Amino acid sequence: MTNSDSDQPISPSLRWVDENHQACLDGLLDYLRIPSVSTDPAYGDEVARCSRYLDDELRRIGLESRIVETEGHPLVVAERIKSPELPTVLFYGHYDVQPPDPLELWTSPPFEPRVEDGKIFARGATDDKGQSWAHVKAVEAILATAGDLPVNVRFLVEGEEESGGEAIEHFVRASAEELRSDCVVISDSSMYAPGQPSLLYGLKGLLYMEMLVTGPDRDLHSGSYGGALTNPLNALAQIVGALRDPRTGKVLIPGFYDDVRDLEAWEREQFAALPFDEKDYCDSIGISETFGEEGFTTLERVWARPTCDVNGIWGGYQGAGAKTVIAAHGGAKVSMRLVPDQDPKVLAKAFEAYVRDVAPVGVDVAVSVHSDALPVRFDVEGPFMDAAQEALKQVWGRPAVKVREGGSIPIVQTFSEVLDVPVLLIGFGLSDDCLHAPNEKFGVENFYQGIRTTVRLLELMGEQAGAGQS
């Protein structure tokens, strides 16, 4: 039962959630039935239909909502402002989803939601329709029982997070005054473990590079020309091999670690205190042992140390059997996950200079940047963080753990920079929810707990505001 381990009374809004379980779930299932795949132009009409569905729902529950057309997919912007004297919470989410491919690996159609064994199976179930729908239902619960909200709320929900669109970036920068808020709440991440509420206070940045190594002006017979020139694929392997020390795991790009902010002592202590089984971790991904930067634990490396990984590599003959050829060119895609206070633009220049320096003679190297994002790390103290921790504790019956994440959400850094307010990253998914993969799922109870947590968060923020005015 909600608040089972808390002395706090169950509010009417929380009772509303318990009494309207099925209606909350049914609305989400209808939302999930819309195939809002943003990266495929063939789904453009469906993405637009999904924005209208959300806009209609926000209007229905009592918010002023509108659709903002962009050069890409629409944004949905809504608000309910009770008083300029009250704090304002901005909820961010995205209604677009990843492509469902490969379809043959789904146990049921990706856009025909299936509820089984307490889980919702559908594309977008946890990323991010299910989690952001919890915000909508929480606001509805309070409005339905109290008639108004304890704080002001705004919603900004985009339709191209999964396709790298820039519409929201431009909108936030151009509409800072319109979006002015006291904190941002985002549920687009995972909990540390089942039943363990988590507050995410750090995300890695990203630098994604591509390099193309070119030699002769055409593919050559390896018998006729072998030994007479630098093979572009050999050169590519030499360059890739020079990116990391195979013994220590350290990245060898000069200056790579110059601006890395060290882990604080309390972080290392808290990470070490988390339940983590190295063998179970290895078994879960089918490897025999972990490897990474020397001197750091697996959690420290994944969450708070920079990395450099080859994401794709190609060149030469790939068909069946043998073909004795020296390929004219080959290439690789390399991503670097960055930590505070690394700057992707500085490191892009360092990467290119190093790659050219270690490349052997006889080949040309072209380097390009595909994308970049700054890392973010938030203070773990303050009234909004306190309210989030208390809400999680009351609803889940145990204190939240503070964690960081190896992934990147570029808009988080934009919110932090442009709005200059705390960002609360409160995820309700699980690491095994198959994000971006077939059979994506979201626990039904996690969905309801997400609604309850958001209700309590808004109520506690309202109580804080009232105490401050008294």
Structural class: alpha+beta
Q: Based on the structure, what is the oligomeric state of the protein chains?
A: single chain
Q: Level of helix content?
A: 25-40%
Largest sheet: 6 strands, mixed
CATH architecture grouping of the largest domain:
3-Layer(aba) Sandwich
In CATH terms, what is the fold-level topology of the largest domain? Aminopeptidase
* C-alpha end-to-end distance: 33 Å
Low-confidence stretches: 1-5
Can you tell me the CATH class of the largest domain? Alpha Beta
Domain count: 2
Q: How are strands sequenced across the largest beta sheet?
A: 1-2-6-3-7-17
Count the E strands.
18
The best one-word shape is: globular
Please specify the SSE layout and strand pairing:
Elements: H1 12-19, H2 21-32, H3 44-61, E1 64-68, E2 75-80, E3 88-94, E4 114-116, E5 119-121, H4 129-146, E6 152-158, H5 167-174, E7 183-186, E8 198-203, E9 205-214, E10 220-221, H6 222-225, H7 232-241, H8 265-273, H9 278-285, H10 298-304, E11 307-315, E12 325-326, E13 329-338, H11 344-358, E14 364-373, E15 376-377, H12 383-396, E16 401-405, H13 410-419, E17 423-425, E18 441-443, H14 444-469
Parallel strand pairs: 3-6, 3-7, 7-17, 8-16
Antiparallel strand pairs: 1-2, 2-6, 4-5, 5-18, 8-15, 9-13, 9-14, 10-12, 11-13
